[in-house]
Amino acid sequence: MTAKIAYDDVEVGTELPAQTFGVTRATLVQYAGASGDFNPIHWNERFAKEVGLPDVIAHGMFTMAEAIRVVTDWTGDPGAVVEYGVRFTKPVVVPNDDEGATIEVSGKVAVKLDDNTVRVDLVAMSAGQKVLGMSRAVVRLA
Fold it and tell me: Distance between CA 107 and CA 14 in Å, rounded?
């Protein structure tokens, strides 16, 4: 696959389509099975509270993966992501109800780099709090 977005068609400030991702306890169990991360803070409310968390929290890598989907959906090619990094600033707290939590992600082109690459800065929010800091991806465009 190749990115569907052309480097010449993108300017600094170009906004990527924002997305909202739902997270339920079932989502966390599925992710735990796929990732092998069965830390009880991601599924056991009693344990999470005993270690000082407000409730069960989403896996950091799950949150990170949901955020980068804004970029991969925009480019049309997951292989276009050259670099990606974040800082975890707040947990995504997932209540035990039918709604769970949401992660709202937006992004914009911050810098046009060499070799048809751009840096995209992402903002990921949950419950009104920024859950990822310094969330940046370098993406190779067509």
Answer: 9
Q: What is the 3-state secondary structure (H, E, C) of the chain?
A: CCCCCCHHHCCCCCEEEEEEEEECHHHHHHHHHHHCCCCHHHCCHHHHHHCCCCCCECCHHHHHHHHHHHHHHHHCCHHHEEEEEEEECCCCECCCCCCCEEEEEEEEEEEECCCCEEEEEEEEEECCEEEEEEEEEEEECC
Alpha carbon distance 125, 131 (integer Å): 5
Which tens digit of pLDDT belongs to each residue from 76-128?
999 999 999 999 999 999 999 989 999 999 999 999 999 999 999 999 999 99
Q: Within its chain, how far is the Cα of 96 from the centroid?
A: 21
Give the closest residue to 101 by CA, choosing from 27, 41, 51.
27
Paired with 136 in beta bridges are 85, 121
Q: Which tokens is 50 given?
A: 């005993």
- This prediction has a pTM of 0.95
Average predicted confidence (pLDDT) for the chain: 97
